[in-house]
Amino acid sequence: MRHDADPISAAFPDVEVPVGGTAIDPLGPNLWSTAGEVKLTGAKVTYELSGAAGVRITPSEQGGGECENPSTVRVVCTDPRVLSFEGETIEAYLPVVVKANRTAEVGDTGTVAVTFSADGIAPISGVSEVRVIDGRESLPITGPGPGLTGAAVLSLGVLCVLVARRRAPLR
Asked: What predicted TM-score, i.e. pTM, was given to this entire model?
């Protein structure tokens, strides 16, 4: 979801989380300037998770801010630094980590209401969708993990190298 405001704009990406695992990317608003250089103080991001049984949010160690986690469905992060940017996007600003218990059900969805605020600007709110996906190990293009097929291909490659070395004439 995307929201345009002045002097900054924000997008609120969706996230997929595997049953019994953690979403690959942390969840946080993407911010960019629509009015040249912007310097903000008092930046704050509030997260409210709802609707996805067995899913929880926790502060991310990647955020650089200070976060409070009063419950498994609410996180509030603040940034004591001056937020300064122009012409670039700050991705996943003050993010949270999304995790699903083993009891979460594949296909279940929920939402995270995200609000970004800072001194001198109106709060920007949006919603990110959380989708619970199958937690099995799989490769995105080739399907299930390599298992025996991968081992067989690796063994064949090693065998070919050994045969090629034995047949190479000595110089």
From this structure: 0.76
Going from the C-alpha of 63 to that of each of 81, 155, 156, the distances in angstroms are 12, 43, 45
Q: Say which residues have a Cβ less than 8 Å from residue 151's Cβ, sequence separation at least 6.
A: none
DSSP three-state, residue 102: coil
The residue type at 46: T
Counting Cβ atoms within 10 Å, is residue 116 exposed (0-12), middle (13-18) or buried (19+)? buried
Question: For 27, which DSSP code?
Answer: B
Between the CA of residue 114 and those of 3, 61, 64, 128, what are the distances in Å? 11, 18, 18, 7
Contact 56, 30 (CB under 8 A): no
Tens-digit pLDDT string for the chain (171 aa): 555 656 789 999 999 999 999 999 999 999 998 888 889 999 999 999 999 999 999 999 887 889 999 899 999 999 999 998 887 889 999 999 999 999 999 999 999 999 999 998 999 999 999 999 997 654 444 444 444 445 444 454 544 444 445 554 544
Token pair of 29 as six digits: 């608003």
In whole angstroms, what is the distance from residue 72 CA to residue 54 CA?
A: 10
DSSP letter for each residue of 122-171 = --EEEEEEEEEE--S-EETTTEE--HHHHHHHHHHHHHHHHHHHHHSPP-
